[in-house]
Amino acid sequence: MGPSTTKDGKNAMMNYGQNQYRKTQVATVDRGRLIVLLYEGAISFLTKARACLGDGDIPSAASLINRAQDIIDELNASLNLEQGGDIAVNLRRLYLFMGDQLVRAKVKADPEPLEEVTRMLASLNEAWREAVAKPEAQEVLNQQPAPTATAQMRSSLRI
Q1: Domain harbouring 76, CATH code
Q2: Model-level pTM greater than 0.85?
């Protein structure tokens, strides 16, 4: 074996190790923290989308809005309406409203709905941060199904 083969083998081994570490890290994140991370991701995508709209980069803005929508769709799909009661029903309404606003932002290239959705997500995120800090809330959350990555498959259906 030549030096480049050994180096490539080392790189492949290091990449494998890093990937395994990431998978383990994600698997060990509790459900409440995962929800907080999802909110933060959606907020980040919408903040970047607003900047793209400001620069006139409509395709990039639409792509970022789609990514935020995927997160919101996944949060919506993971709601348990039977056990969640009124809170779950109200969250569903908010997520559907946010989705409508994001479509409006894409169709009209309007940053205002993005700002509104970002404010709503930030408020929800703060509430989740406070909730997951309480041990009794964490026990309840861990009994619920966690959001999954299936929303990415739906992104090709976006406007």
Answers
A1: 1.20.120.340
A2: no
Residue 98 domain-assigned?
Answer: yes
* Positions in the chain whose pLDDT score sits under 50: 1-5, 28, 149-159
- 148, part of any domain: yes
Tokens of 42: 């959606």
Measured between alpha carbons, how far is residue 5 from residues 8, 17, 140, 151 in Å?
5, 18, 51, 39
Whether 11 maps to a domain, the answer reads no
Which position has the token pair 């990449």? 15
List Cα–Cα distances, 15 to 7, 9, 86, 87, 125, in angstroms: 12, 10, 45, 42, 33
Q: Which of 54-76 are b and which e, b meaning 16 or more Cβ less than 10 Å from the residue's Cβ? A: eeeeeeebbbbbbbbbbbbbbbb
**Could you list the residue range(s) of the whole structural domain that residue 153 is in?**
28-157
Coil, strand or helix at 71: helix
Side chain identity, residue 114:
L
SS3 state of residue 111: helix
Match 């607003």 to its residue by tokens. Answer: 50
The total of other beta-carbon atoms located within 10 Å of residue 124's CB is 20
pLDDT of residue 131: 85
Tokens of 157: 């259906």
The number of domains in the chain is 1
